[in-house]
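BUG: 3D viewer hangs when loading the predicted structure for this chain

Environment: internal workstation, default settings.
Expected: structure renders.
Actual: progress bar stalls at 90%.

Input used:
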Amino acid sequence: MGSAKKKQRRMDNQILGQFFIESQAGRARLKDVEEVKDILLKLGEPFTGIITDRELFYFFLIFSWNLSFAPEEKVAEELDNFLKPYEQLGEGFHKASRELILSIAQRKKQLFPQEHYTFGSLAPGEN
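Structure tokens produced before the viewer hung:
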């Protein structure tokens, strides 16, 4: 593995270390679950050129993944709550982000219908 790939994997692990997966089997730190990281990367493949900030990339992927489990009548509300902190970036950003998130959530349903776990965020200092 080249130096750039190692550096990228280390950065991915730092970002993903903030999250865990929640399933019937319990909780697992995301950075320790290689298979899930690979699934997230496959999910996000078409969007890597759109979201160039790696942390934001994973944040959108994880939110979109979780959104795919929301009841249809709650999706708009969940999206509005998620995008509320970004209101100052303007209507263009809001609209583009909304479309992107819905596209990722739909892709999750198509590619990974058998995956039924969700992601959570660890509080600072939580293990």
